[in-house]
Design brief:
Number of domains: 1
CATH class: Mainly Alpha
Number of helices: 10
CATH architecture: Up-down Bundle
CATH topology: Rhomboid-like fold
Radius of gyration: 17 Å
Structural class: mainly alpha
Strand content: 5-15%
Largest sheet: 3 strands, antiparallel
Helix content: 55-70%
CATH superfamily: Rhomboid-like
């Protein structure tokens, strides 16, 4: 399933969400430039989050910098699509400063669970989706009945449907949990792929922190590289 847009207009301009999207795009542009220079691998190992190094108390800055790196164009576009659709409403509910702190804490929580699952891993973790998963978790509990227009792929058939956020995001979370469980052995063997447990950790953190960071009750509206 791929969300396209929601029926949940925000009441303020989502400056932080837009700034985060811009920052991720600019950093990815720098990654492309480094790749052309043959220097990308060194950059990823320097600024990507490597669990084994963090456990040893080294390169703690990568807990933050790793959130702004991506492993490819599709990785970046997928993450930015989710942030664009769901970030504005969560920022609206929290306010700009609280939302930025919330986003960072969710990213740190995502990394914490990924490290706890595989603390000896030497594979760099890159991607914003641990933090973005926190945004999804906050949206899940704050706007559960907002309608989200979604593409559903059924083999050769594609359907455009409108789903409550609680259904779409609930399905997304269960999939992350099941997929993460299925890839535990591959992670322990040092293979790359998707950091599903970072998604799980971010989503749960977002659910738990939403009530703390939300400045007001939301208005009720009708209708509505190991990558992370």
């Amino acid at each position: 399933m791929m969300p396209i847009r929601d029926e949940n207009p925000s009441q303020s301009t989502p400056y932080v969400t837009h700034a985060l999207i811009l920052a991720n795009v600019l950093v990815f542009g720098y990654e492309v430039w480094l790749a052309l220079q043959g220097r990308l691998e060194e950059f990823i190992y320097t600024y990507g989050m490597v669990p084994a190094r963090v456990v040893q108390g080294e390169a703690l800055h990568t807990l933050l910098t790793g959130m702004f790196l991506h492993g490819g164009v599709l990785h970046l576009l997928g993450n930015m699509l989710y942030l664009y659709i769901f970030g504005d409403n969560v920022e609206d509910a929290m306010g700009h400063r609280r939302y930025l702190l919330f986003y960072i804490l969710c990213g740190l929580s995502a990394s914490a669970l990924q490290i706890a699952i595989n603390p000896a891993s030497e594979v760099p973790n890159v991607g914003a989706s641990g933090a973005i998963a926190g945004v999804l978790g906050a949206y899940f509990v704050t706007y559960p009945f907002a309608r989200v227009h979604t593409l559903i792929f059924l083999g050769y058939f594609v359907r455009w449907v409108s789903l409550p956020a609680v259904v779409l995001l609930g399905f997304w979370f269960v999939f992350q949990l099941l997929a993460g469980t299925a890839t535990l052995e591959a992670m322990r063997l040092g293979y790359g792929g998707v950091a599903y447990f970072a998604h799980v950790g971010g989503f749960v953190a977002g659910m738990l922190l939403a009530g703390i960071f939300r400045k007001t009750q939301p208005m009720r509206r009708s209708g509505g590289t190991l990558w992370s």
